[in-house]
Amino acid sequence: MVDVSKWPLFTLLSPPELATIRQACVFGTSANEAIYITHDDEVFGFGFNCSNCLGTGDSLSTIVPKKLDLLRGKKVVSLSYGSGPHVLLATADGELFAWGHNGYSQLGNGTTNQGVCPLLVATNLQSKKVREVACGSHHSMALTQDGEVFAWGYNNCGQVGSGSTANQPSPRRVSSCLQGKTVTGITCGQTSSMAVVDNGEVYGWGYNGNGQLGIGNNGNQLTPCRLAALQGLCIQQVVSGYAHCLALTDEGLLYTWGANTYGQLGTGNKSNQLSPVHIMAEKDRVVEIAACHSTHTSAAKTQSGQVYMWGQCRSQSIVLPHLTHFAATDDVFACFATPTVMWRLLSMEHDDFLTVAQSLRKEFDSPETADLKFSIDGKYIYVHKAVLKIRCEHFRSMFQSHWTEDLQEVIEVDQFSYPVYRSFLQFLYTDSIDLPPEDAIGLLDLATSYCENRLKRLCQHIIKRGITVENAFALLSAAVRYDAEDLEEFCFRFCVNHLTQVTQTGAFWQVDGALLKEFICRASRCGAFKN
Description:
five-stranded antiparallel sheet; four-stranded antiparallel sheet; 13 helices; about 25% helix
């Protein structure tokens, strides 16, 4: 669990105040400003208030949090900050708000007047719903729900993607090579911009003096340019540091490029890279990457939960990924980044909730306190009727007086394997599961049978993170069988993106003929077989 009090600013808040926080972001040239959102969807700001970046309606610094009344009741889905700093915030309703430094029209309101409180950004966005925002040093980007990118603000290097170097006073759609493509993610370096599209391609534009666009040269780009070096890879996530980038593929491979003065590329040296370089090849599968435009720090988390850091860490240059004892990439930035900002809008859980979970976790499969045991494959699992009844509707019905199971001390289970059923019962105690993707299919079957929708979503999450060329078609088949539409779409896209390799696996040719026919027809409609 990430502890928000690891950031010094939050030590100013009392425990009751900390307990109200649902989301938070620390930013500023010295990590001396913070905005947080409570569980009641109230937004507060405190800190230095440089360039009115707290949005409190005045230019005064404050160590006492002030409420941003204009944002009351707004569910925040994305927040980003610039170097001025200026702040962008997107709500669940698709609204976009901006405030703070505006010397280059980065607030998108057509002026260069600073925004002392949140302003609704509407120009060219009236019929759009914004779902993600990103800030560079003095430029801004927004991603809409229909996959369009808008940019505005400082444009000295082409970072707005308009084809010129004239500053852009209001949101303008970034088209050129992105025309007709659906963008799924955006990120900004100090003076560069990146976008990931739904087919896994990556595009970059703006300043490229350190190779941060990854296009093989160091010439600035005034419009989006595709990273040809990533051809054949399906990129899921890209993050930008000050002048470097990290990209994560759908198979958990990590690539880096750009500036490397502090070793932030993790290549073992300090040489800039004009094209993407594969790093951490010998490590476990990477599932998350982290960087932000105000630091030269990089971090990554593997499938097994290990967190690595490299780059500028407390003024030291770490040129190779270093294994930490952290549980989250956020901790790297709290403890080692310069400045100690947050690389993303942070969401939190609290100790008062986890204390109960830890107690339940300890008593799972404990013969000393259990009043019931399940027998599967000749092995026992010890549980508590009360916990099962509280946590699961299936067991609540089973342990009624007219069911024979209510009187039994041992219940035999033969329709599921021991690992699958144990993981299910453990989930009822811990809210988590730890299974390889292949076993998660069996658990998905159980979750479907027992109408456990949250468990079903967790199984799908594990399967997505563990998908490979070898198991992709088997996972697609399972998703169809268990009516998991989101997982089915994910597996289908993966199979199409790696079509040649997938069709050479045993799972592809062993599948049911009807499913194979449906896949081929659907893939054909998507243009998978075009030359």
